[in-house]
Amino acid sequence: MTTEFMSRMVGLVVFLFLGIRLGLESSGFVGLPATSTAFVFGLVGVLVGLILTPYLTVHPIRTIRRSINEWPIELLLMSLTGALIGLLLALLATYPLSLLPPPFGNFVPPILMLVFAYLGMTIFGVRSKEIAGAIGQRLGKQGGRLTGLSSRKLILDTSVLIDGRITDIAETGFVGGTMIIPRFVLSELHRVADSSDHLRRNRGRRGLNMLNKLQKNEVIPIRIVEDDFDDISAVDDKLVALALQMTAVIITNDYNLNQVAEAQGVTVLNINQLANAVRSIYIPGESFALRIIQEGREHEQGVGYLEDGTMVVVERGNRYMDRTINVEVTKLINQPTGRMIFAVPAGDRDR
User: Residue 145's pLDDT is what?
Assistant: First the structure.
């Protein structure tokens, strides 16, 4: 049973009793027998409970939880600190204000505490980066998460979050700087995660899981920025505009975004190019064992894959289907979209 279904059942019962109670108390005004009024109001309560309960309970809780998960740790800590300081300041004024004549003495102190807590949370949240940096420098914690590891800014796009390899790269420490995730990228991830298409929904949820994993990473700081461009509709165009505005680098594995960004003078780090750079290199003339698993596009071609996913196209390889043979490299092609190796069966090159 889902949480939403359970909330509907609980809401049905609660609003049913509320409707019956309201019907009994309103029977005199309605001019109908108490039993009939209670029955009608009870039915209305059942409908209200079934329809509205998730929107009053489950959905708001999900929204709050999602927002908290997306907040950078600096923003969350500073907001809580600001709220606490606001409450302490309001507490100092609570006693003299409680001496005011009724009803002011009863209502002004709690209202003041709510206002001060909100102001403290808002002020510290808006200036969280500066406050955290100042505290870190004051304590001498250079290089920690509060002060940042580098002034380099790395903007992540939707595809690289869904891909997931960026989390492993971040944990190695090879990428220096602050990873920046725009709010419009998160919104796109949420739309994909809420899609009716099963495959798109799984891709979106994977992207959100990768984001949570990145936020727990202690090697590279993560920032979520609110900057948006209302006059630009496409997410890729927004990423390029944000990179130009912040003088930042875009991390992606989208070939089209790669080309568009570089054409506008934005530096791009392509995850696929990095993967190609660390894959095993075979030069023409070298041999290795390969299992042929499918036919190629051209006549008599066979196709196999290395452990790292590199495609190997074997001329005259279709005759060895579902067999492991030794192949000899004839040509190696590197492209932004991936690496491809061309080979022939060992000892078969000169035929």
Answer: 43
Place 313 in a pLDDT band, splitting at 50, 70 and 90.
very high
Per CATH, the number for 281-345 is 2.40.50.140
Q: Single out the residue of 37, 77, 72 nearest to residue 186, CA to CA.
A: 72
Chain centroid to CA 133: how far?
Answer: 25
Dihedral Cα 257, 262, 266, 272, nearest 10 deg: 60
Distances (CA, A) of 262 to 109, 249, 254, 282: 58, 10, 12, 30
- pLDDT per residue over 267-278, tens digit each? 888 887 787 777
Where in the chain are the domains? 3-62, 73-139, 153-276, 281-345
State the pLDDT confidence band at 327, using cuts at 50, 70 and 90. Answer: very high
Residue 282: half-sphere exposure toward Cβ, Cα within 13 Å: 24
Pairing of strands 287-291, 311-314: unpaired
* 3-class secondary-structure state, position 344: strand
Between CA 173 and CA 219 the distance in angstroms is 6
Query: How many other CB atoms sit within 10 Å of the CB of residue 163?
Result: 20
Q: What is the pLDDT of residues 118-155, one digit of tens each?
A: 888 888 877 776 676 666 656 554 444 444 445 678 89
pLDDT score, position 148: 42
CATH fold of the domain at 153-276: Rossmann fold (3.40.50)
Question: 103: which 2 tokens?
Answer: 């009803």
Helices (H), the chain: 3-30, 34-56, 58-70, 73-98, 104-126, 128-139, 158-163, 165-172, 183-193, 198-215, 235-246, 255-263, 271-278
- The number of C-alpha atoms within 13 Å of 84 and in the hemisphere containing its C-beta is 6
- Coil vs helix vs strand at 302: strand
C-alpha 179: how far from chain center = 13
Look-up of token digits 């019956």: 20
Q: Is 332 helix (H, G, I), strand (E, B) or coil?
A: strand
For the whole prediction, is pTM greater than 0.90?
no
